[in-house]
Amino acid sequence: MADRTRRGGGDSREAAERAFRAATTRPAEVARPTQVAVPRAREMVSIRLDRDVLEHFQADGPGWQERINDALRKAAGL
């Protein structure tokens, strides 16, 4: 039987598994950061609109996205 005292007295596989668990286990006291809601924050989305609807809002020049947003808020009753 081999003398294990020179190697630290443990099985190398067990030591590797302990090290892996220690490195990959999240401590219970670490809380995940929470997202703070920003009032009226804008979010980029992709939406498909009919060409005539898009042209209607773009006809008045810059600010057409804001006008679409206002029209959608009004239609949604917000």
TrEMBL record:
Residues 1-20 have a biased composition (Basic and acidic residues). Residues 1-35 are annotated as: Disordered. Pfam families: BrnA_antitoxin. It comes from the Bacteria. This is BrnA antitoxin family protein. It comes from Enterovirga aerilata.
